[in-house]
Design brief:
single chain, alpha/beta, Rossmann fold, phosphoenolpyruvate carboxylase, domain 3, 4 domains, 7-stranded parallel β-sheet, 6-stranded parallel β-sheet
Length: 679
Amino acid sequence: MAAFELYAYQKEVAERALYKENIIIWLPTGGGKTRAAVYVAKKHLEATPRAKVVVLVNKVHLVDQHYNNEFKPHLGRDYKVLPVSGETVEKDFFGKVLQDMDVVICTAQLLHNALIDKDEDKHVELSDITLLIIDECHHTNKDAVYNKVMTFYLEKKLKGEKSLPQILGLTASPGTGGARDLQKATEHILQICANLDSAIVSTTNFVAELNEKVPRPIKQFDIVDPRPKDPFGDQLKSMMLMIHEFMNIPPGFRLRQCGTQEYEADVVELEKIGVKTDDRMLAQCALHLREYNDALLINDTLRMIDAYLCLVEFYRNKITREIDGTDIFLVGLFQENQAELEILVKDSRYGNPKMDKLKSTLLEQFVPRENSKGIIFSKTRKSTHCLNDWVLNDKELKEAGIKPAILTGAGNGISYMTLNEQSETIRNFRRGAVNLLVSTSVAEEGLDIPECNLVVRYGLLTNEIAQQQASGRARAKDSRYSVVAQSGGPEERRERTNDYLKELTEKAIAKVQEMCPREFSKKIAALQREAAIQRSLAEKLKMEKRNRYPAASFNLVCRSCFTSVAPGSDLRLLDGVHYVNVNPDFEKNYKVGAQVVLEKSFEDWEPGRKVCCRECDKDWGYEMKYKGFALLPNLSIKNLALDTPNGRLTLKKWKDIPFIVEDFSFEEYCHENHSDIFD
């Protein structure tokens, strides 16, 4: 077994947990929070009869990472330690597995599912657990799954139940929760503490040691002046103005400056208004304006060619299907201007000065050092691909020995990485085959990435938590944390605001830590009771709303052409997750597209082909082949609209629909649709 040693600051932050107290350990990224948690788990297992430790993470890849890097090496010789995720067979027997193991590392969603599952092989009671460790516990708020798990805990606590697990939270920053003053920031910290039923602990006696072991990078603002001229961007804005003049913008609705996040929010709202008011012209113009705005944002951050190709791809898909005059105008506008746009993107005089600055920042760090490692954090998966392509094809960057690779979130779809691809990329980064990660926010938090000489924030507008997570990746000696941004632009302003919010977070935590234990307990108890009342009222209102009208009173319509899709009464809820249409006549309303490929396989079903609108080709979801027999269209509510007795709604998630959907019965489905089998 690997040697188990803690620094003095780690022992200090873990000490109160050894006396069974609920605490949140607050240490910076790279400070060894997980190692301190393993130490607490070891002492807990040694001292607690029938001890049962569960470690919760919020991302699947962290299950194996924590198991392989920390818990297995230090606890595996003396205790039974097991990683469980949606990728492992043990998920189907989670209750039984927990009984047999000493330490289980799993996703929070898996534990939440087990808490509500009635199957005795899967079901878990919180009283089965003696120590619950919550990684990245600043996510324990609002509707996050961590908070759902802790709701079970708090409801039992408020009822006076004693058999509850000890809580140990881990975070690099709880943030301010959007607060901009000390009082509200302090309230946010208290709310996190209340949600976790824990006090927040940091080192006070060994700050110097912490700073020595986890040095902070040298921060630099690499600021550039705006483009002197931007004819490509000007042309896009001119085309957007033509769309503004063509569409019927509602009276009193004001669009903010195009090429900004605020403008994007405006056109998203316009699309919703168009769908709700049956104004297809407004809805479609808003969708196209969003694409143009995305192109402006890409042009501001990346190359003109990257912005142009995004528009080309969008219109390549649109040209095949023109429903009415709106489509003819919008597609025609792009086609009429396409040749001129293509000429502009090839004019090197109007290149992006931010990319020139990014290039010089990379060369400054990589040329003098043979073993440099760096990360560029960028906003979207698309931008990581564009930046990676730029680095690969730039002569000077290649000669400097820069070997890039993309690192994005795992998921299903062409633009996502698989978990294996993520792991392979990080392995290559660790051994030097790759020395520059071009990453989305996935690399900010949790992933076990080697220390870097350089971290660059490029084209990002994120909060103070993400900023601290990212800067914590630059832990090598004399490392740099660079913010490449336009002078006075939104990225520079946000970064400087985050610096202030970081200080505000520290002050708020200090305020909470200064409270006497009695005052602190009184405050979080009041917050817990208040949250319980709010949950109860919200649930009551939700049920009243959902029971007001039957499912047959609602009708799904295509979000693009407003064609009727199906009544709510045709829907069934499959396995508590999938909303499927069980009416065999529904196939008349859609056509099928390409085969859907998902990264993981499922026990009872497999994906079929895409389901698309017959009229406009809008993607509605995909077919599910259930138990090798039933072919069920699995619908996506975000691609549909809902006609209700009180007007049309646009929803992001099925959980927000205002009616009750019956559970799917395989037997009933077979009797109704294939009665000949049972004759």
